[in-house]
From TrEMBL:
Residues 9-401 form the Major facilitator superfamily (MFS) profile domain. This is Galactoside permease. It comes from the Bacteria. GO terms for molecular function: lactose binding; lactose:proton symporter activity. SUPFAM superfamilies: MFS general substrate transporter (SSF103473).
Length: 416
């Protein structure tokens, strides 16, 4: 790794670390906060997550096209940095009072802030990092590993801090955002012609019809079917902390233990991010996606069948294997199946957007199911849904194709 490559690797890894640190500090215990501090039940918490998902799914296509249009410029990341900085004051002085005074209005305003900042923003940052990694010749997974470490670092003490005062976590989120902005100021924009070896034209030449042309590709819809199935993992994790905390004698002990478990999972996930590129490069993107789907099925069905905190923890830790495979493979699949000028649009629409569409619908349903049938039965249903779409995807997804076969999206037909 030469000096310039190392510089970009360090800076982008740092951006991912502090983005995830901010996100985790404010959001990793959000279900506990809504339940224990705001007083919401399962269905009401489901409404909150649905609002977040709806706003995110409206924002993600916009972020994807804007980032593809910007190419290697960082204007969108600067906007996200300012939003991260406002996290602490927003949760303490705006979100909490609104939820107590008017649940629907609070859900809407919170959905706008959280959905646009974190759930849509992470896709923009990840796709920017992946694009730069291809140009500067370092593995995206090795940089994304630092995002996992950022989340784990925040959650390690989040449960303990939550029992003292949840507002401390929110202020830590804003402090982390200051460091994000400082690092971003040191990222010098690469020249547009740096993308010449990877793209079919300049990013500025992209038109809206180029992005809309994706809708005519069977391969795009095959990817959508797979993502619809695995998107259940976002809904699965939303209220898992409440279920886990209920396994302990007191809520305080459950809160602390969940913080430790979540931290351990994400530290293991960081190791997975480092190693996943080796496996994905060896077995291919398609097989890696299917393997991630199989692991997700095992985790969800296992969580429904497991009893006791120890076995439930073991199921939770499978996420540390599943997520790195999924993220690395999805980028590899996009890079080997589609026009790379549209990589941000493909990731934010084909993966993040579809995930939020599913989450916006399923959050309310699962919240109701938790209240009516319990967590274990709901997890079994989720696992069966993922198993079905993963099986279907065995036939719909395609393997990699050589770079020599690439053509601009609007001029090509999907290969068989």
């Amino acid at each position: 790794m030469n000096r310039k490559t190392k510089k970009y690797y360090v800076l982008l890894s740092g951006l991912l670390f502090f983005f995830f640190f901010t996100w985790s500090s404010s959001f990793s215990l959000i279900s506990l906060w809504l339940n224990q501090k705001i007083g919401l039940q399962g269905a009401e918490t489901g409404l909150i997550f649905s609002a977040i998902s709806l706003i995110a799914l409206c924002t993600q296509p916009l972020y994807g096209f804007v980032q593809d249009k910007l190419g290697l410029r960082k204007h969108l990341l600067q906007f996200l940095g300012v939003m991260l900085l406002l996290t602490g004051p927003f949760f303490i002085y705006v979100y909490a009072p609104l939820l107590k005074a008017n649940l629907l209005l609070g859900a809407l305003i919170g959905g706008i802030f959280i959905g646009a900042t974190f759930f849509a923003g992470i896709g923009a940052l990840e796709s920017y990092t992946e694009r730069v990694s291809r140009i500067m010749d370092f593995e995206f997974g090795r940089a994304r590993m630092w995002g996992s470490l950022g989340w784990a670092s925040a959650t390690f003490c989040a449960g303990f801090i939550f029992n003292i005062n949840p507002n401390i976590n929110f202020w830590l989120a804003s402090a982390s955002a200051v460091l994000f902005l400082l690092l971003l100021s040191q990222v010098h924009e690469l020249k547009p012609n740096a993308m010449a070896s990877l793209e079919f034209g300049k990013p500025e030449s992209l038109q809206l019809q180029d992005a809309l042309a994706l809708l005519r590709l069977p391969g795009f819809w095959a990817l959508v079917v797979f993502v619809l199935g695995i998107s259940v993992y976002n809904v699965f994790d939303q209220q898992f902390s409440v279920y886990f905390a209920s396994q302990f004698p007191t809520r305080q002990q459950g809160n602390e233990m969940y913080g430790f478990l979540n931290s351990l999972q994400v530290f293991l996930e960081a190791g997975g991010m480092f190693l996943a590129p080796l496996l994905v490069n060896r077995i291919g993107a398609k097989r890696s996606l299917l393997l991630a789907g199989a692991l997700m099925t095992l985790r969800m069905i296992g969580s429904g069948l497991a009893s006791g905190a120890l076995m439930i923890s073991a199921m939770k830790l499978l996420h540390a294997v599943e997520l790195p495979l999924l993220l690395i493979a999805i980028f590899k699949y996009i890079a080997t199946r589609f026009d790379s000028r549209l990589s941000s649009t493909l990731y934010l629409v084909g993966f993040q957007f579809i995930t939020q569409v599913a989450a916006s619908v399923l959050s309310l349903l699962t919240g109701y199911s938790y209240d009516r049938f319990g967590f274990a039965q709901t997890y079994l249903l989720m696992g069966c849904a993922v198993a079905c779409t993963t099986l279907i995807s065995c036939f719909l997804l395609r393997g990699e194709r050589p770079a020599s076969q690439f053509q601009p999206i609007i001029k090509s037909s999907e290969p068989t």
